[in-house]
Amino acid sequence: MQNSKVSKRLGIAIVIIQLLDIIIHVALGRPEPLRIVSNIVILSWMFIVQMGWLEGWKRPFSFIVIGIYALLNLIFIVLPNILTTPELIFMLAVFVFPTLGLSAWRTKNA
């Protein structure tokens, strides 16, 4: 029961971080497609897990999703992109590292 409460709270925190990330990018007039796709990947994962559609596959699926999220953000950093400024890289760290940590913690507690 305790793990369930922790997982739910972690899921809520992850969703809030993803939504804030999208809102900030759009508000700054710099919606980065790769970053928004990575946000949608995580939000979709949260929805699928919450719906209970992954019984028996929750942990492997979660690791795959976290890996895709990390890969999309790594591609964003590595690919030359004239729109990627130091400020955007800083924002990436502010949102991506907590998401990766919370997602791993949530998967462990699932």
Please provide a written account of the structure.
The chain is mostly helical and 110 residues long. The protein has one domain (2-109). 82% of the residues lie in helices and 0% in strands. Helix 1 (2-27) packs antiparallel against helix 2 (33-51) and helix 2 (33-51) packs antiparallel against helix 3. The chain is elongated, with a radius of gyration of 14 Å.
Q: Would you kindly provide a brief summary of this structure?
A:
This protein has 110 residues and is mainly α. It has one domain (2-109). Helix content is 82%, strand content 0%.
**Strand segment count:** 0
How many structural domains can be distinguished in the coordinates?
1
Strand-pairing-aware structural class: mainly alpha
Strand content: under 5%
User: How far do the termini sit from each other?
Assistant: 11 Å
Give the biggest beta sheet.
none
Helix content: over 70%
**Helical run tally:** 4
One letter per element, helices H and strands E, the order comes to HHHH
Rg, rounded, reads 14 Å
Which overall shape is indicated by the principal axes computed on the Cα atoms? Answer: elongated
Low-confidence stretches: none
Question: Quick check: average pLDDT?
Answer: 86
